[in-house]
Amino acid sequence: MKEYFAFQWHITDECDQRCKHCYIFSEDNCKKLDAMTWQQIQDTFYNCLDFCEIYGRLPYFYITGGDPILHPDFWRLLGLMKEHNIPFTILGNPFHLNDEVCKQLKEYGCQKYQLSLDGMRETHDWFRKPGSFDCTLEKIACIKRAGIRSVIMTTVSGTNIKEIPAIIDTVVEAGVDVFAFARYCPTSEEKDTGMTPQEYRELLDTCYKKFQAYEAAGCSTYFNKKDHLWTLYEYEKGIFKIPEDAQDGFIYGGCNCGNCHMTILPTGDIYACRRVQNSKVGNVFEDRIADIWVCQMETYRDYTKFEKCAKCELLAWCRGCPAVASGKDGNFYAADPQCWKEV
């Protein structure tokens, strides 16, 4: 059975917000807003399909921006997806959604629509813009009425870590289908997430107990343990056990960078991971993705280089978040700043 390969495809930088933790605007608030032309979109699409055909993968697209719905050819792209019967998720803002738009998204084959909540009302609106919190909660209902799975993603940092339990209660009350959180990846302007390893472990412990309680009560929200440090937490709790038939040298899980994921920006630049600021490996307008995969991307698959993880029995399943690690000094293989395990 073929496995899926995920393309996080940023078709435009255009956006209604200027979020304080945004990768696009973190370096220069006056930067030129890039967007692909319709010809570039088509070329990129078929380059991705070519890669999947060569390596026997099934394409899955995460279409994003900026806010992708602001691209003038957004609906033409969805038509291309539908024509080839390719599943996709939209990562966008809530502001241009309504029942009619969500119905159209569903007709084109949208499986999930991901929104962000980065704190309760005051904190979230400070990160993003006034009114964004209430608008996000309101549009969850539009997404669900259309039959699309609603996803809420939270970026965790020292600024909002104490609000995560309240966010969980909020998304459950709103009937969100999937909830997950990931850590803030520092940019060149900031070098720290603002959380100690112990503080982050305590957050995981608090969230785990909440997840368990909600699941026991029959809650329909799926809690996606996206951060790979969940593996370490569950290993210590005896929930995750290393399989007896595990083979040395095999990678069974953990970070997908260089494995089954890549990011394409509006400029055509290809990144091993968007969250890894210095991980550019090529340009989709100039390079064949299939060639990049066996050459430049190999840099991110040398698992023996992980300075801490290579000494850990969980190397094949965890590896924390190299993007957070590389945010400090550009070293992809450095120790995860929030990993509390001593090796």
TrEMBL record:
Superkingdom of the organism of origin: Bacteria
Cofactor requirement: [4Fe-4S] cluster
CDD domains, alphabetized: Radical_SAM
UniProt cross-references to Gene3D superfamilies, sorted A to Z: Aldolase class I
Alphabetized NCBIfam families for the sequence: rSAM_ACGX, rSAM_more_4Fe4S
Species: Youxingia wuxianensis
One example GO MF annotation: metal ion binding
Record keywords: 4Fe-4S, Iron, Iron-sulfur, Metal-binding, S-adenosyl-L-methionine
Pfam families, alphabetized: Radical_SAM, SPASM
Protein name: Radical SAM/SPASM domain protein, ACGX system
Presence of the UniProt keyword Cytoplasm in the record: no
Domain Radical SAM core: 1-213
